[in-house]
Every structure is written in C-alpha cells, then in structure tokens.
Amino acid sequence: MNTVARVNESARDHAKSAVRPFAGSELLAALRRHARERPGAEAVGEIGKGSACAYGELAAMVDARAAVLREHVRPGSVVVCVMPAGAELVAWFCSAIATGVRLLAMHPQIAGPEALGAAQRAGAVAAVVGDEMGAAWALTGLENLRDVALALDPAPSHPGEAEGGIVLGSSGTTGLPKLALRGSAALDADGQAVVEGLRLTHHDRVVFATPLSHSYGIDVLAGVLLAGASLRVASSFDVELVAHELETGATVLPSVPFVFEALARCERNRSSSLRVAVSAGSMLPDHVRASFTRAWDVQVGQLYGATELGAVTTDTPDLPGFDPRSVGRPLKGASVRIVDVDDPDRPLDRGREGHLAVRAASMLSQYLDGEAPVHDGHFLTGDLGRVGPDGRVYITGRLKHLIDVGAYKVNPLEVEAVLCAHPGVVECAVVAAAASETVSRLRAVVVARDAAAPTADDLRQFVRERLSPVKVPRTVEFVPSLPKTATGKVLRDRV
Length: 495
Prior knowledge:
Blueprint lengths: L1 E3 L21 H12 L4 E5 L4 E4 H18 L5 E5 L4 H13 L2 E5 L5 H11 L1 E6 L7 H5 L4 H5 L14 E5 L9 E5 H15 L6 E4 L6 H13 L2 E4 L5 H9 L4 E4 L1 H9 L10 E4 L6 H11 L3 E7 L3 E6 L13 E2 L3 E6 L14 E7 L5 E2 L6 E2 L2 E10 L5 E6 L4 E3 L2 E3 L1 H9 L4 E10 L5 E9 L7 H9 L10 E4 L17
Parallel strand pairs: 1-6, 2-10, 4-5, 4-6, 5-7, 9-10, 11-12, 12-13, 25-26
Antiparallel strand pairs: 2-3, 7-8, 8-18, 13-14, 14-15, 16-17, 17-20, 19-20, 20-21, 22-23, 24-25
Helix pairs in contact: 1-2, 1-8, 2-3, 7-8, 10-11
C-alpha cells in the first residue's frame, strides 16, 4: 500500500515557497500571497502545545507534501487522511488541492472498521497518518487496499485536469451516511462565504475548538486561508485552554452550543477581545446565549451549513434586524427556497414552513457512494424551515432523526445497524437522551434473543470496537418489543 506517513521536515526551514495553485485555486493563490508578503505571520497554532506554524512554513510544507502525492498517487484518486487538528492536517489539505487528489478526512478517534468501510466505499488508494496515531488501526486496517494501490501507475509530473478537493462523511439526512466530494472551486466559494459572514481579515485570530476534519472545520479553514488570518486549533476540547485563548487575543469564535455552554460556566477572568462569535450545528438555547453574553460580554450569532453545502447563512448581532432565533440570510454564492415536503417541485411562499432546499457555489459535486438529493439544482437538506419577510432563514425541525452529540451529528440508523449485527440482538432503536439543553447522549433500546442475551456492557463494547466513541450509546435498555405502527415502522417518540 502507498502509505505516506512521514515527510522531510526540513521543508519547514524554507522561508519562501513556490506553492502552485491548481486549476485556479483561490485558496492556494491566497496561501502563496500570504507566504510571500507575510511569511512570519502565524497561520496555524495548536492550543495548549505552544506550537505555531507561520505562513511561509506552511507553504513550504504544502510543497513538500504535494511532491510526495505527485510521486505516489494519480490525480483524481482518493487518499485517506487521519490526523489531529494542526498544521500537518492543513498542509495535506492544501497539497491535495494542489495535486488533484481527493482527501478523505477522518477524525483520529474513528474506529478501524468504520474507517476501513469509508475508505473502501470511496475507493481510497493510500493513507496519510499523523505520527500521534502511532501503530493503531490506521495502517493495518487498510492493508486490503494494497492491491489497488500497487496497481496504480506513477503519477505524471503535471496533474492534468483532475480537480482536487475534500471528501467528508455526511451524517446521512436520508439512509446511512454518505461520502460527499467538494472540489477546489466549491472550497473557494466556501471560503469566500465564511470571509463574508465573519468579516475575516488578516488581523483576526480565529479559535476553533471542534474537529477540524469535519465540515464546519473545513468551512472555517477555507475562510482563514483566504483572509490570511491565524487559526488556533485543538485536538480535543479543553474549556480552560479555550478560555485562555479568549483572554489572550482571540477575535473570532466559531463554535457549537456545548462549547458556549461550557465557556459560560468556566470561572475565569472572562475579559476578551472577541469581536464576533457564532454557533452552528444546532440552535443555541436562549439561556445559554444569555449566560455566555453575561460571562464574556459578547453576543452570539448563528451560522448554518452542511457537509454537502459548506457555510450557507449567518446572522451576527452587529447586523440590522439581528434575530437570535434565525440562522440569518444566505451568504455569497448561496440561495435558499422552501419547498413542499411531499413535492419539491412546488416552492412555498415566504413565511410558510416546508423542506429547506439550498443551491450554493460551495455545494458538493457528488456523493462517492450514492445519489445526492439534488432537485432542480437545489440540495434537499432534510431540514424543515421557513423564510421571513426580510429573507432571514428559520430552521424549525428535521425531516429525519439525527441526534446532536456535542459537536457531532449521529445517525441512529448507523448505530442500530451495528447493534443488530450482534448475534444476541433481534432489533433495536437508538434515540436521544438529553444530558442538558445543549448536550444529548445516545440511548439504545434493545430486543434481545433469549438464548444469547448480551449485557449492556457487551453491546457497548461491541459498538465501541466498530464505531467512533461518540457513537457508542451511553445507556442500553432491554425491552420485550418496540412500539410500531401497523406497517412495522418503529415509533421513536414512544421508545
């Protein structure tokens, strides 16, 4: 298998770089410009580690990793990337764009079987793995890709017309999670939208304390690279370290509800230079918004996006007519419509609730493992919503039953499929159990086989070996049967 695990780190010593924008990539052109004009300015800093990478260093890292990809991987191929948040992940992201490679980003805590399944569905031919991963699943779990990788011809020196980009696992608004491909042009548009929505400049210091390898992280990263701002990231969330960042120069905080809740409760000096904070993932409860504002003297706006779409709308308190109940107006390159739930050909008037459909320059090119729900050029999000008289969008619910667990959205169908693979399980349902107003846990309700009844710990361990920790049910309950409709559909609200 073509496994790229280490690169010549002497590239970090170069003050200048010859990063070549691929296919007109605005992100790479911006990176080259920042490296030339401000080589010593911080590009990526790792919270709690005291390490930082300047733009000149980052551009040199991108060159080095792009050279490795050109040598080992053909343009258009998918390469798995499993790394903690940091400059290394950013460098591989940029080098994939530069070489026409599609980077399948995975969180370091992903379980081996889950990662292998995604890699196989994507047709991955190689993996880049951060040194911090050690000898865990990543290298051994992908060994059965060896034949595919070795069958490749060496990549040409010039990648031709293949467009590089990012492949992200969606939460799965319909059915099981899919792998969404967003190419270089879409990432450029995403970055432009984030720069507009957060009004980013090279003076900003952006703190991002949720996974950089997920869609929200890619949105923020694209905006930071275009603006030439500083991105401060963490491989795991530590409220004290993030609070320290807010006290020592952070200007922008894009985050999720549970982070704002934790920061509101954190007993620190609570003086900050934040000029904007936005919450995404799910609506921020009013009392959490108020608590954070009292603690840090900063009001929180809202950002709406999706794995398949990038950043779509935002609303911040400095805008006229700000409404904390809204996710805001469409950003540059995006348009929204509300359509009939049963007939997407029938748009609904403003003020009426229906299925939210979005068209955006930042949207996916395709699913690598299925058909995307695109109708008349609009992606059907699976969200219910309405548009107000002033064009602001209001999210009112979900068509499906995704569960917010911290900074993640978990599709219960995926967890249920694993549980039902256990020989002692007849059927099950996975639902949300509220831990607080901003945090949910997973609750599994199981019908067991009498002859091989597992324990709750047995089932939790069974899931833990196959899925990421966030997808392991916090509680497992056993029942004689699940409540169902006459046609056999499980009544989740009665479980």
